[in-house]
């Protein structure tokens, strides 16, 4: 593995405990880790060393995306569902997703991960939960292959849906599985792909889709299985008022009360969205250490509401940032997501409710805390060499360089970065992915999307 020395970095935003910002320091990367951050690091006679002059660059820790659905890349911008809320949106898209193939899963994962890497995200959590009856049960394996091929740090969910329409659930029966099928394949995926090493590039998360798409028995068995294997657990929760009505009607409980009843509370659990949670519920989550993946763009597009993120932070609920699926966001842009989060909460919760550094912390250290991977989320010696750089000399940043963090989030016409490194490997250089042919991947993905949509007349 080649060592890399970034020389004379204009500003290193460490996001360490003291939130240090270091001007004109060097950063040395060796063996996939940050080896040193010092002034004037001198190394001679190193044939394995690449030196990058970084005097005009701002350097940041890699961003951490805590909730996504990669496969939804294939169903972006469908006109029929641009103006509907979550339940109707899902009912329209489920039949299209029933046509997913292993090839489609692979290419959509490459696209989503590529977009993330090009916008400074080095670690991604993806929840995959669509297993069409006519397809190979091992379809999720294609996502692990894509993550490895493109070079992203991947936490992949073995998701599930077991409560079909005939049993009172939302998804059509052709994309649900039996509890037995789900639990057996979840064990297989954990045993084959989960890496407990502190610097792991691939981990597995147990992830029933939502309260309205799985049985109560599966929720109970899934959290039991996750804890037997020592892996994390994740699901959607409190995203919409419809979900609240569903839980009240079916179980006589709020969504969080239902999660508590089935054992889904604790430091090994986090929920996507958390829009409709009251203060008492947030206090219980904070006490248990249960986190939230905040998805501002998706919540805005589907008109789901605004998550009480400032209140979560005040009470000590772990919060990470997420782009959510590409069909409810239409992009996988983590820097744009930070900007939306900042503006949304200033509007909803007041001008001083959050600042740029608060949002960057959610997108780095917050994600690290939720995913239980403390080796990522900050730039410090001994931690993972996951980072990205933007060039301060770009026209779009002119006149706005007094605060690098605010420049990253508030300024600029493009959110694509100049360089991204994951585990010491440069995966984006000069704004281009180094591990895949972008044009070829885009072409294959467009072909697959057209095939899927044409089958359903969409």
TrEMBL record:
Keywords: Hydrolase, Metal-binding, Zinc. Signal peptide: none annotated. GO terms for molecular function: 8-oxoguanine deaminase activity; deaminase activity; metal ion binding. Gene3D superfamilies: Metal-dependent hydrolases, Urease, subunit C, domain 1. Residues 58-427 form the Amidohydrolase-related domain. InterPro entries: Amidohydro-rel (IPR006680), Metal-dep_hydrolase_composite (IPR011059), Metal_Hydrolase (IPR032466), MTA/SAH_deaminase (IPR050287). It is an enzyme of class 3 (hydrolase). This is 8-oxoguanine deaminase. Its EC number is 3.5.4.32. It comes from Halonatronomonas betaini. The keyword GTP-binding does not apply. Pfam families: Amidohydro_1.
């Amino acid at each position: 593995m080649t060592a890399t020395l970034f020389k004379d970095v204009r500003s290193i935003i460490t996001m360490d405990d003291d939130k240090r910002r270091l001007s004109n320091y060097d950063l040395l990367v060796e063996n996939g880790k940050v080896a040193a951050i010092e002034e004037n690091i001198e190394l001679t006679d190193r044939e394995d060393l690449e030196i990058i002059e970084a005097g005009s660059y701002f350097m940041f820790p890699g961003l951490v995306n805590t909730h996504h659905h990669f496969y939804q890349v294939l169903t972006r911008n469908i006109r029929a569902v641009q103006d509907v809320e979550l339940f109707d949106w899902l009912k329209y898209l489920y039949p299209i997703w029933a046509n997913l193939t292993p090839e489609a899963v692979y290419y959509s994962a490459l696209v989503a991960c590529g977009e993330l890497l090009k916008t400074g995200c080095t670690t991604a959590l993806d929840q995959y939960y669509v297993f069409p009856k006519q397809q190979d049960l091992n379809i999720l394996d294609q996502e692990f292959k894509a993550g490895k091929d493109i070079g992203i740090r991947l936490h992949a969910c073995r998701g599930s849906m077991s409560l079909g329409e005939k049993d009172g659930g939302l998804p059509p029966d052709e994309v649900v599985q039996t509890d037995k099928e789900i639990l057996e394949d979840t064990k297989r995926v954990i045993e084959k792909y989960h890496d407990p090493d502190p610097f792991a590039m691939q981990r597995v998360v147990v992830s029933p889709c939502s309260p309205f798409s799985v049985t109560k028995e599966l929720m109970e068995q899934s959290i039991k299985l996750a804890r037997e294997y020592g892996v994390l657990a994740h699901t959607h929760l409190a995203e919409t008022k419809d979900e609240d009505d569903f839980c009240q009607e079916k179980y006589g409980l709020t969504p969080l009360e239902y999660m508590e009843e089935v054992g889904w509370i604790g430091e090994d659990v986090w929920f996507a969205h958390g829009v409709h949670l009251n203060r008492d519920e947030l206090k219980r989550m904070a006490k248990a250490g249960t986190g939230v993946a905040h998805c501002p763009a998706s919540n805005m597009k589907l008109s789901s509401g605004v998550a009480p993120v400032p209140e979560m932070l005040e009470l000590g609920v772990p919060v990470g940032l997420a782009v959510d699926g590409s069909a409810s966001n239409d992009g996988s842009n983590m820097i744009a997501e930070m900007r939306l989060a900042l503006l949304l909460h200033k509007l909803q919760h007041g001008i001083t409710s959050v600042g740029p550094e608060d949002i960057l912390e959610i997108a780095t250290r917050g994600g690290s805390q939720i995913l239980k991977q403390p080796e990522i989320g900050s730039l410090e010696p001994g931690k993972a060499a996951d980072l990205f750089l933007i060039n301060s000399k770009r026209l779009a940043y002119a006149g706005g360089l007094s605060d690098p963090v605010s420049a990253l989030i508030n300024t600029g016409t493009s959110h694509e970065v100049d360089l991204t490194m994951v585990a010491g490997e440069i995966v984006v250089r000069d704004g281009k992915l180094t591990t895949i042919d972008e044009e070829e991947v885009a072409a294959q993905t467009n072909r697959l999307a057209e095939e899927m949509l044409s089958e359903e007349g969409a």
